C-alpha cells in the first residue's frame, strides 16, 4: 500500500512538472514573439516617425529618392474587411448556434455538425479559390456596369469571404456555451408562460452572453489575421478608401506583409516597416482581447454582487415578493 501510494505521488509530481513545462513553453513562446516584433519593428516606427507611419497615406518603400512608409490605408483596410465580416458573419453564426443548440432536430443535427467541422478544416486558400471563382464574378456581374468596375476584386468580396470563414469558430463556441446554460432556466421561463422561441432568445441567449462574446472575439481575431483568402479577392490596391467605397479594391496589413516580404532586403528600413506593420496588428488583437476581458470581468463582478445581495436578502427583493 505504501509503495503504491509513493508511486502515485511520483506520477502526480511528474504530470505536474509536464503541465508546468507546457504552460511555461507557451508563455516563453509568446514572450519571444513579442521581443522579436518589438525589437525589430519599433526602431523602424521611430525612424519613420510614429505619426507618419500610422497616419501616412503614401506607401512607396522602393522609391529611392522619396520613400514613403505610411500604413493608414492598410490599417483602415483591415478594419473595413473585419467590420464587414462581423456584420455578415456574426448574426448568421449566432442564429445558427441557437438553432443547433435549441431548435435543430436530431436527425438534421447529425448532418449539420460534421459539415460545420469540415468547414473549420478547409484551408484558407480553398476559400480564396471559391471567392475568385464564385463571389468575385458575381459581384462584377451585379455591380460592374453600374459602377464602372474593372473587376470584382473588392472590399465587399473580402468581407463576404471572411464572414464565411469565421462561421465555424463563432457557431462552435457559441453553441457550446448555449448548451452549457442550465436547463432549469429554460424550463422556468416556459413554466411562466413564455413560448419556446421567447425562452430561447430572452433567457438562454442572455445567460450565455459572455460565451457568445468570446465566440465573436475569436471570430474577429480570425478575420483580422487572415491573409491568403483576402489577398486573392481584395484587389490588393494600396489606396486609402472610405467605408462606402466597398466596391473598390483594398489592401490589408496582413496582405501587405505577405506580398512584399518575399523580395525585401533583410535589415533594410523596408523590412523593418513590414515587421512594424506586424507590431500594429499584434497591438490591435491585444486591445480587442483586453477589452473583452475587461467587459467579461465587469459582467462577472455584477453577477457576483447580485448573487451576494440575494443571499443576504435584498430589501427590494423582499418588498417585491410581498407585493
Task: Describe, in plain words, how this protein is organized in 3D.
With 323 residues, this protein is an all-alpha fold. The chain folds into two domains: 2-59; 72-306, MetI-like (MetI-like fold), CATH 1.10.3720. The chain contains 14 helices and two strands. The protein has helices spanning 2-48, 50-55, 72-103, 106-121, 124-143, 155-165, 167-179, 183-191, 196-207, 209-225, 228-233, 253-260, 269-312, 315-322, and strands spanning 59-60, 68-69. The chain has a two-stranded antiparallel sheet with strand order 1-2. Strand 1 (59-60) and strand 2 (68-69) form a beta hairpin. Helix 3 (72-103) crosses helix 10, helix 4 crosses helix 7 and helix 12 runs antiparallel to helix 13. Mean pLDDT is 86; it is low at 314-323.
> What name goes with the CATH superfamily of the largest domain?
MetI-like
The protein's oligomeric status is: single chain
Low-confidence stretches: 314-323
Q: Element order, helices and strands? A: HHEEHHHHHHHHHHHH
Envelope shape: globular
Structural class: mainly alpha
Number of individual domains: 2
How does the major sheet shape up?
A: 2 strands, antiparallel
As for the CATH topology of the largest domain, it is MetI-like fold
Radius of gyration: 25 Å
Strand order of the largest sheet: 1-2
Assess the beta-strand content as a share of residues. under 5%
Judging by the overall fold, what is the CATH architecture of the largest domain?
Orthogonal Bundle
Helix content: over 70%
Please tally the helical runs, counting DSSP H or I stretches of 4 or more residues: 14
Overall mean confidence score, pLDDT: 86
| DSSP strand tally | 2
The CATH top-level class label of the largest domain: Mainly Alpha
Amino acid at each position: 500500500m505504501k509503495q503504491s501510494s509513493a508511486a502515485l505521488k511520483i506520477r502526480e509530481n511528474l504530470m505536474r512538472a509536464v503541465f508546468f513545462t507546457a504552460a511555461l513553453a507557451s508563455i516563453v513562446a509568446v514572450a519571444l514573439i513579442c521581443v522579436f516584433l518589438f525589437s525589430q519593428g519599433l526602431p523602424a516606427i521611430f525612424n519613420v516617425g510614429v505619426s507618419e507611419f500610422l497616419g501616412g497615406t503614401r506607401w512607396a518603400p522602393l522609391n529611392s529618392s522619396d520613400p514613403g512608409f505610411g500604413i493608414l490605408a492598410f490599417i483602415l483596410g483591415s478594419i473595413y474587411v473585419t467590420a464587414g465580416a462581423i456584420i455578415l458573419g456574426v448574426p448568421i453564426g449566432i442564429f445558427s448556434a441557437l438553432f443547433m443548440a435549441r431548435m435543430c432536430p436530431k436527425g438534421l443535427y447529425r448532418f449539420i455538425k460534421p459539415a460545420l467541422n469540415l468547414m473549420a478544416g478547409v484551408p484558407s486558400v480553398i476559400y480564396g479559390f471559391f471567392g475568385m471563382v464564385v463571389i468575385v464574378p458575381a459581384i462584377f456581374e451585379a455591380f460592374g456596369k453600374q459602377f464602372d468596375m474593372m473587376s470584382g476584386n473588392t472590399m465587399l468580396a473580402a468581407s463576404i469571404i471572411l464572414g464565411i470563414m469565421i462561421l465555424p469558430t463563432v457557431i462552435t463556441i457559441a453553441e457550446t456555451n448555449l448548451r452549457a446554460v442550465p436547463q432549469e432556466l429554460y424550463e422556468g421561463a416556459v413554466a411562466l408562460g413564455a413560448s419556446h422561441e421567447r425562452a430561447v432568445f430572452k433567457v438562454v441567449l442572455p445567460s450565455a452572453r459572455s460565451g457568445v462574446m468570446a465566440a465573436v472575439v475569436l471570430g474577429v481575431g480570425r478575420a483580422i489575421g487572415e491573409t491568403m483568402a483576402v489577398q486573392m479577392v481584395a484587389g490588393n490596391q494600396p489606396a486609402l478608401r472610405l467605408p462606402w467605397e466597398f466596391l473598390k479594391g483594398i489592401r490589408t496589413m496582413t496582405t501587405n506583409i505577405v506580398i512584399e516580404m518575399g523580395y525585401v532586403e533583410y535589415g533594410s528600413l523596408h523590412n523593418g516597416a513590414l515587421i512594424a506593420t506586424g507590431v500594429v496588428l499584434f497591438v490591435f488583437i491585444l486591445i480587442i482581447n483586453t477589452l473583452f476581458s475587461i467587459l467579461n470581468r465587469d459582467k462577472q463582478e455584477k453577477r457576483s454582487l447580485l448573487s451576494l445581495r440575494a443571499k443576504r436578502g435584498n430589501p427590494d427583493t423582499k418588498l417585491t415578493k410581498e407585493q
